[in-house]
Amino acid sequence: QVQLMESGGGLVQPGGSLKLSCAASGFTFSSYAMSWYRQAPGKERELVAWISSDGRSTNSAHSVKGRFTISRDNAKNTVILQMNSLKPEDTAVYYCNAVRYTSYWGQGTQVTVSS
Question: What is residue 70's predicted lDDT score, i.e. its pLDDT?
Fold first, then answer.
C-alpha cells in the first residue's frame, strides 16, 4: 500500500537547522511531484516547497526562500527538506505530499523552534 513516512522533526533553537526526510513506498515515486507542507496550530496547511518528478524544478514559499531547500533521490524514493536559520514561526507539523493524478499524504512530523 502507499506509504509516506516523514522523519527528522524535533525541537531546535532559533537559528538552528533540521533535515526532514520522507520515505515513499507503494507507488512509482519518480513519476510524482513531491511537496512539503506545514500546518501551525490554528492555521491552515500551507505549501512550503515543491520539487518536480525529475528533480529539475523546485519552488518554495516566500517565507522560507533562502533558508529551506528541497531535494529528492529517485533511486532511494526519498525527498528531503533541509531547513536552516530556523525561526519560531517555522514551528508546525510538516507533511510530505506526493501528487500526480492523485495525492498522497504522510502522517506529519512536528518541528518546534524555541529557545
Answer: 98
